[in-house]
Amino acid sequence: MKTWHCPVPPPFSEKVVLAHGEGGKAMRRFIREHISSKLALGSAMDDSAILNLPQKQLAMTTDSFVVSPLFFPGGNIGSLAVHGTVNDLAVAGAQPIAISLALILEEGLEISLLENVLESLRNAAEACNVTICTGDTKVVQRGAVDKLFINTTGVGCLQTKFALSSANVRAGDELIVSGPIGQHGMAVLCAREDLKLVPTPISDSAPLHQECSALLLGLGANLRCMRDATRGGISAVLHEWAMDAQLSMQIDESRIPVSAEVRGACELLGLDPLYVANEGTMLIAVARDHSVRALEVLRQLNPATKAAIIGQVVPALSAPVVIRRLHGALIPVDEPQGAPLPRIC
Amino acid sequence: MKYLDEFRDPQLARRLIDDIQERATRRWKIMDVCGGQTHSLLKYGIESTLENCVELIHGPGCPVCVTAPETIEYAKHLALLPNVIIATFGDMLRVPGFSASEVSQANPPLTSSVCPGSLADARTRGGQIQIVYSPLDAVELATQNPKKQIVFLAVGFETTVPATALAALQAEQLRLRNFSLLVAHVCVLPVMQVLVGDPNCELNAFLAAGHVCAVSGHDIYRALVSESGLPVIVTGFEPLDLLAGIRCAVELLESNNPQVVNCYSRSVSSQGNRFAQDVMATVYKQVDRKWRGFGTIRGGGLALRERFAEMDAEKRFGTILQIPIVHQETCRSGDVMAGRIKPHECEHFGRGCTPDQPLGAPMVSNEGACSAYYRYAPQTKRN
Questions:
Q1: Are the Cβ atoms of B131 and A195 closer than 8 angstroms?
Q2: B148 found inside a domain
Q3: Residue B221 lies in a domain
Q4: One domain for residues B260 and B286
Q5: Across the interface, do B64 and A332 touch by the CB < 8 Å criterion?
Q6: B4 contacts chain A (CB < 8 A)
């Protein structure tokens, strides 16, 4: 026999209930007390945000965040939802202006947990100087999502007259990675599987808009392309560029920065950091002889940067991406195949 | 990083390569038994660098590759039962079971639960499958889910056996009624004996897998060496480990001095890990087992002892699969793993068989020879 339960939340609910997403008073109060206040937004609940933008050419991007666990060393789904979208704008050469925020909440979610996520989302947005200009909240039945999913859509103003694109990449261009690779993917994996590695990998989740602006300013048209190396790691980006430009990407294993903890975790699990996700690390292609200047620009922003020149663009070889390992042998790098699975032994 | 960088030193690698090339008076056929060795040899370009003096033949030591398709089908069947969760190493997820044509041609027809595809495919059809990193995690899963039956897919060579044996002992101690093992463990020595017993065997030497030897000790190969006259060199998995092993093999072959040599002394002793051996022997007994691509190998597998019979998934859930399939696999994994053909010499390699659409296990496994060739060998070998 089915039992009925009242959908109206108790007055001091600590958990999200379906009524919080069903319009009406409970929803209005929930948004006011637990969402708008945490994000320091005004009380207006108009259907659209009106943006005043300084120029006509806009960049727009959208991304959904479903990371599990919600909190991991170096960040959480809130900060990630800002960094991911800001970085997609930044690497396209746009100055991020505003983002939307759509929340899909699972019935029964702890409200305190939601508030923690929103607080870090707000801090991240402030640090990136983007406004959270519009939003949406849905509550779905238990089991329909894993606690909390977030979608953010971002708009930004293009800072250049020339578009940054992988079509700009030329043979002879030099390849730079902006920091140690594989941090985010391994941090999330170790947290999700409770692997208890010491020291544990920490996510690189961070905004890249300042680095991108500085590179645009410092290198002008000698900056060919930038891409944040998220899912599929730097291998995925290199493959995209190679395919788009009909050239090959040649990298040198010994020059790719990988932290000891990521390297250790990858060795243990049989994973290759080239395929592991990043959330605050990008690949940069610059014209020949401009990589040193690019590194200077990055060092001015952060003297401790681990950015490194890792290779160059070459005329098409037998494989789109090749890596120099050990005694100079050039080995193809395969395109990522689905999620990396840890090996048996 | 300690234990990694010193074994990947490019200058030392160069010296070893030169040394091997200098010593070899003919092109020796050396089998690297384990898939981990295969991947390192290709990943670091060692195979192609030594092509002129050593033919590296990649052996059957990939646990995922040799697991019989019946085991995969049985695991898929269990995963789709209500209240059963299959716990498995991630590697097993993409391994195909029977092919679509095998399923459709089965006579009598197979039950509806037997559909072509891998455990990952079964998961999309609602199968409950959980990736674990250690068999002990599966025991934990059982304690946390008392209303679910947790079946751990116990695959692998002597490298993983002690850990699954420990899981069985732990589950026994906890008196868990909802934990069982679907055992498909395999042993490495019997398959090496099968290979050298083949009258067409052209092998000159073996590189034995260091992690198996860390458990079993390297003395287990003495009889094989004296019977076959083939040297067995125990190696690790780093480039310098492998190069040192190959150099040793060439040295022994050139001086016609077959013996067991341990080139992985930082992990391996002659007697191995006694504690691990005891745990294995407490839980498992040696049995004949069907290997994918090889058929039944005498003494080639392990099964639970009587004391652990209740933990045997096949006893608990019944043997539903008397699959009446005549093996007509298009995949030539048996030829690849016995060293009869190189992965790229298979007519399906890179055409009908890719990591996205594998015909057989060696193309999907992290340790499979076909996947190593697909990933690391120059693209010319793909076409």
A1: no
A2: yes
A3: no
A4: no
A5: no
A6: yes
Q: What is the ipTM of this complex?
A: 0.82
Chain center to CA of B135: 17
Rounded to an integer, what distance in angstroms lies between the CA atom of residue B170 and that of residue B140?
10
Q: Cβ separation of A327 and B355 shorter than 8 Å?
A: no
CB within 8 Å: B45 and A329? yes
In chain A, what are the helix, strand and coil shares in percent, each to the nearest 5?
A: 35, 25, 40
* B287: CATH: 3.40.50.11740
Which of B44, B124, B140, B152 best probes binding to A when mutated, by most A CB atoms within 10 angstroms?
A: B44
Q: Is residue B382 part of a domain?
A: no
B40 and B121 assigned to the same domain: no
* Best mutation target, A189, A274, A330, A343, to test chain B (most B CBs within 10 A): A343
Give A-chain residues touching B63 at CB under 8 angstroms: 344-345
Specify whether B4 is located in the same domain as B148.
no
Domain count, chain B: 2
Q: For B154, which residue in chain A has the nearest alpha carbon?
A: A344
Task: Tell whether B203 and B180 lie within a shared domain.
Answer: no
Cβ–Cβ < 8 Å for B75, B151: yes
Q: Are B98 and B76 in contact (CB under 8 A)?
A: no
pTM of the model: 0.87
Question: What is the extent of the structural domain holding B147?
Answer: 68-185+273-317
Residue B121 CA: distances (Å) to CA of A217, A220, B81, B115, B148 = 49, 49, 15, 9, 21
The pLDDT-based confidence of A328 (bands split at 50, 70, 90) is confident
Backbone angles phi, psi at B9, to 5 degrees: -70, 120
**Residues B252 and B356 grouped into a single domain:** yes
Q: Are residues B277 and B203 in the same domain?
A: no
- Residues B177 and B193 placed together within one structural domain of the fold: no
If asked whether residues B241 and B285 sit together in one domain, one would say no
Comparing B179 with B96, the larger pLDDT belongs to: B179
Give chain A's domains with CATH numbers: 18-43+53-158 (3.30.1330.10), 166-332 (3.90.650.10)
How far apart (Å, rounded) are the C-alpha atoms in residues A69 and A74? 12
Dump the DSSP string for B252-317: HHHTT---EEES-TTT--SS--HHHHHHHHHHEEEEEEEETTTEEEEEEEEEE-GGGGGGBHHHHH
In the predicted structure, residue B35 carries a pLDDT above the cut 70: yes
CA distance B10 to chain A (A): 5
Give residue for tokens 């058929």.
B295
Question: Would you call A345 and B10 a contact, using CB atoms and an 8 Å cutoff?
Answer: no
Task: Tell whether B48 lies on the interface with A, counting CB pairs under 8 A.
Answer: yes
> Is B32 part of any domain?
yes
Is the pLDDT assigned to residue B260 strictly greater than 80? yes
